[in-house]
């Protein structure tokens, strides 16, 4: 098992999902809940994210094969999507690309916000799913998939701990501090997106880029 691969995969999830940047959104969506209910919402949301990403790891390649989509073409599409979300993060916009206004209005009237819109599409959105499919396809062995699954579970636990401490972290960092972190994550995420796009073009046009 390549530890470097899993560390890179973990950091990629942190950059793309950006749980710290989502803290203000989480606090806002759970403002009507008490501490016990807020912790339960965080637990359900992160459990849902882990399940979605685990299914993506093991079924993503089969889904691409079903629609006859090459991994190179999906790299370009996924990398472009990741880059678009990253550009939004660099501008300090939280969740605007991942959720439209209609979904926002629907969420405000929901009793439970854990699965929709928190887990999907805010956390396990198209960018995260695309990144996981690409990573799983590039490291298509059972042992690597197991290692990536463990990494996803560790990410879910880390994210839940952050959400559990959300009110305190939000007060300490403030909106400015979280915006700074979001922009840094956006820059890292943009770099990941560009690398994925370049790898896709290399796969589609190997002679052109050599």
From TrEMBL:
Protein name per UniProt: UPF0056 membrane protein
GO cellular component, one term: plasma membrane
Homology family: Belongs to the UPF0056 (MarC) family.
Broad class of the protein's primary localization: membrane
Protein species of origin: Shewanella psychrophila
Top-level taxonomic group: Bacteria
Topological category with respect to the lipid bilayer: Multi-pass membrane protein
Record bears the keyword Zinc-finger: no
Protein's cellular compartments: Cell membrane
Transmembrane regions listed in the UniProt entry: 6-32, 44-63, 69-92, 113-136, 142-163, 184-205
